[in-house]
Amino acid sequence: MKRNYGAFLLVLLIVISACGIDNTMYNAKNYFESAQERPLNANGRPTPQAVSDYTKAIQKCGIILSDGGKSKRADEALFLMAKALYYKKNSAFQAKEAFENLIRGYPQSKHVPEAYIYLAQVLREINQNDEAEAVLQRFIRDPKYVKHHPRALLTLADFEIQDENYSRAQFWLERIITDYRKTNEFKEAFFLFGKNYYMQGEYERSLAQFETFVKTRGIPKDKKLEARYYIALNHLELGELETALQECRYLVRNEVRPDMLSRARVLYGRALLANSKEEDGLRELEEVTSTYPRTETAAEAYYYWGNYLYYHKHDLELSVTHLNRVRTEYSNSALAEIASKKATAISQTKLAASLNSRQDLQSWLDHHYLRAERFISPLALPDSALATYQRVIEERDSLSTIRDSLLQEIEYLSVRIDSLNTAAEDTTSTLVPDAEAEAADLVPPDSLAVLSEMTDAEPMAQDVEIPIADSLKQAEEDEQGRINADNAEQELRTAESLEEEENSEEPPPEPELSQQDMEQLIVNLQQEVAEIEPLLQRFDSEIIPYSYFSMYNILYQAPERSQEATELYNKLLTEYPHHMYSAAATALKEGKVPHLIDPAYEEATSAFDAALDYYPEAPDSLVTAMQEFIQSDYEDLRLRANYRLGWHYSFEEPDTTLAKTYLKEVLAAPEQSEYQQTVRRFFDGENYLLRDSGIVDSTLVEVDSLQISVEQDETAEADSTFVGPPEMSDTAEDEESWLDFPQLKIQDELIDTNEINPQAEADSLSERESEPAVNTEDAQTEDSQNNPPPDQPEAEAPAPLPSLPE
């Protein structure tokens, strides 16, 4: 009897324990379902109440698993716990660990297939995208999970859409539609098909897909409302504004989920603005930002608000403010980056009034080029970019007009100076007439002759009366009346001019410039003209061709503007037929990658490289070619030619005087280069240096032969020859260290050291330097140099030249 009682108690304990586990599991499920029923907030995340319910469910599952997971419902509790951790949205790593424990610890559990799909989603959340896709791809290849393959394929398609890999997304969706037509995922695949079309910009196909979806039976109401959101979005993108507005109103009236309602309200505000209901649209967007602050939808509302202010209201300052609020509202918003780029671009497109092409052309160009680039991307205003490049082209005409006006002013001032000089010369050469001559000049000579004849002649008849006195008196009276009338008229004009001056407010006229001032002004104006000329040359040679090419590139990208592109292309070829930007435009037109290389520079570079091949067979041809290149228009070719000639006269045909000229040009180059670094290793700008010794190469010292006498000792003779370092000939090891000249790293024109015979070059130098220097001041000195005295001691053999190690 006691034995039966003990067995009964054991069974009773097992039953009670099982009931306790079932009750705990029941409560955990209730908490989980309660959390699932609560709508997400505007950010698409669970509300605090939902998070609290998920936490309680996790605690209940933990009680079940406290026995080490040995209960029969341990796998179910672990799966529920993992899902609760995932949906809390703040415990992704814990959820990942829970799903992996379920897959490893309970491989036969019915929850394992779902655990794989959840695991992939968790990996996606923690930015392990490749691993997430790999998990699902392994899963869909496993035949024992075939019933769950549609869900895995749907999840894969959603991942690809998020990654903007639309072709792969379509591939996975087509597999569902083709192979799993009788599953729930078949209907959901149509939804993702429509979304995939929308993301690719195929709005008509997307619209047709979603309209079919909402008419399909068995689709949940929430999913249909989400589909109608995309229907409204597609109508808006297609320009069917009234239809889009009607769909948005339907959404706003029927949607109750906060996350979906906030999205619908943003779309409603956009539709109102598109239908020219500016006040209502801006008010709707503003209400979204105040109702759902610090959310993704608030960030979206600020983005479209800022866009409207810029593109339609042209309020640059306020648009930048609103676009910068996007990242402030929700830093993880998909629109945060593009909004920041637009805000920066708008600020950069403002005209800088302080820049002047005459004062700083490069800064002026950089500003306008940057404006054009920002108009193209991210602002998507190609016409504004074209106008900016056109403004750059027109600046050349402005500078030309300024130059012409300056030249006209110079010409005017020169004429004035010439007239002043002429007037001064006339004044000094004119004599002042005396009173008699002046009086005589008042009476014409003919009149005097007539008067004399009348005096000497006989008297006239008495019946002829000639009133000479009366006529003179009458003439005087007439003349006086005319003078009085003129005086009256002059007084009237003076009075009127005084009245006009009193009524007018014009400033007094500027004082007349002296001749010295005008000459100084001409000098200043000529200086201004001289400063403008190189700017005009740069416009003609570089700036205008570049602007034409940039404009052609913009038009070429728009197929509907092909005619404009062709006209501009022909203009570029006509005005600049051999320019590098013309060649680049031709390459672009032919579908090739344009290379901005000046054809003339490319030809010169090829010629330079060909000239380098003259050595060692034709060194004279090499020297002739290099001497031509030191006059090249291209700075880098001049540098290379000077370097090559300096090297040639330093080591190949030693002539240190000539070598110095070319090596100094290399060292004087404005930009530091590898050539300068190489030259400094054996020439410091004045003297040739020996490696690590600090000894000056005495071959540069030229001694006048007149100063060399028979009585000079060996030391004097050594001064006129090439001297090696002290004790260099004591041992072979020392000699090798002396000849160990550093390897010189040279570019295309590096001389093959295998072809140089250092000893032969040394012998040549020895022969040349053993002869006395030429004295051009005395012919007798030249004779003495050509025929040295027989008793003059013979110079020592020079040390070998430093060579390049192989």
Query: What assembly state would you assign to the polypeptide chains in this entry?
Result: single chain
Give the integer mean of the pLDDT values.
78
SS content category: mainly alpha
Number of distinct helices: 34
Percent in strands: under 5%
Output the radius of gyration: 50 Å
Number of strands: 0
Low-confidence stretches: 8-18, 431-473, 691-806
User: What is the first-to-last residue Cα distance?
Assistant: 108 Å
**Form type:** elongated
Please summarize the sheet with the most strands: none
The residue fraction in helices comes out at 55-70%
Compact summary:
With 806 residues, the protein is mainly α.
What key attributes describe this structure?
mainly alpha, 34 helices, 806 residues
Question: Mind explaining what this structure looks like?
Answer:
- The chain is 69% helix and 0% strand.
- Helix 2 packs antiparallel against helix 3.
- The chain has helices at 2-37, 48-64, 74-88, 92-105, 112-125, 129-140, 149-162, 166-179, 184-199, 203-215, 221-237, 241-254, 258-274, 278-291, 296-311, 316-329, 336-348, 361-376, 382-429, 435-442, 445-456, 468-503, 515-556, 562-575, 580-589, 599-612, 619-629, 635-652, 656-667, 674-680, 714-719, 732-739, 758-770, 779-786.
- It is mainly alpha-helical.
- The chain has 34 helices and no strands.
- Mean pLDDT is 78; it is low at 8-18, 431-473 and 691-806.
